[in-house]
Amino acid sequence: MSVAYFRSLARNNAWANATLFETVCAMPKGVYHREFPSFFGTLARTLNHIYEVDLYYIDALLGGGKGRAIFRREDIDEPLALAGAQRETDAALIAACDGLADADLPRSVTVERPDGPSQERTDHLLLHLFQHQIHHRGQVHALLSQAGVTPPQLDEFFLVWDRAETAKPYWKDGTE
């Protein structure tokens, strides 16, 4: 794997989050906090979980030193505010991936765990982070369906043939 792969995943992630939040911010009032049979119970808690885990792993990747203190934050109650915070975090992840060289991928980063620090390879941390985001966006997708809100298409990013028009600006940096 090369850094180009992770740069593409970071851009796909930013686009998928923006696309998802476009739907979430336009849905009827009350759906964001409605309880559903799901792991986190609400769209608000699920989306906040994605956001805070992004903060946690980006902090570890950049050696920020905040560690598990990130999890002591308050949830963001309004979808528009969370969309803005997620957009900033997605930009930070893109910048972090853009700043990597191939030689950085096998290097270890320290991740603060409940039982102490853990050493993880940079590429493995990024793979886990992207998988985590995809997994929970899938849960959000299902919750939207349960709420009667048509979920957005989130897999039209990589292939030129069916690339969403909204995805094209994320490719303007020469990663294509």
List keywords for this structure.
single chain, Four Helix Bundle (Hemerythrin (Met), subunit A), DinB/YfiT-like, DinB, globular, metal ion binding, 176 residues, two-stranded antiparallel ribbon, Damage-inducible protein DinB, mainly alpha, metal-binding, 4 helices
Short description:
This protein has 176 residues and is mainly α. Helices cover 51% and strands 7% of the residues.
Task: Walk me through the structure.
- It comes from Rhodophyticola porphyridii.
- This is Damage-inducible protein DinB.
- InterPro entries: DinB, DinB/YfiT-like.
- There is one protein chain.
- With 176 residues, the protein is mainly alpha-helical.
- It has one domain (3-171): dinb family like domain (Four Helix Bundle (Hemerythrin (Met), subunit A), Up-down Bundle), CATH 1.20.120.450.
- The protein is 51% helix and 7% strand.
- It has four helices and two strands, in the order H-H-H-E-E-H.
- The chain has a two-stranded antiparallel ribbon.
- Strand 1 and strand 2 form a beta hairpin.
- Helix 1 runs parallel beside helix 4 (122-146).
- The protein is globular.
- It starts with a helix and ends in a 30-residue tail after the last helix.
Output the CATH homologous superfamily: dinb family like domain
Q: What's the N-to-C terminus distance?
A: 16 Å
User: Which regions contain 5 or more consecutive residues with pLDDT less than 50?
Assistant: none
| Number of H- or I-type helical stretches | 4
Beta-strand share of residues: 5-15%
Strand order of the largest sheet: 1-2
Tell me the total number of β-strands.
2
> Which sheet architecture does the biggest sheet show?
2 strands, antiparallel
* The CATH class: Mainly Alpha
Helix content: 40-55%
Order of helices and strands: HHHEEH
* CATH arch. level architecture: Up-down Bundle
The dominant shape is globular
> What is the mean pLDDT?
93
Assembly classification: single chain
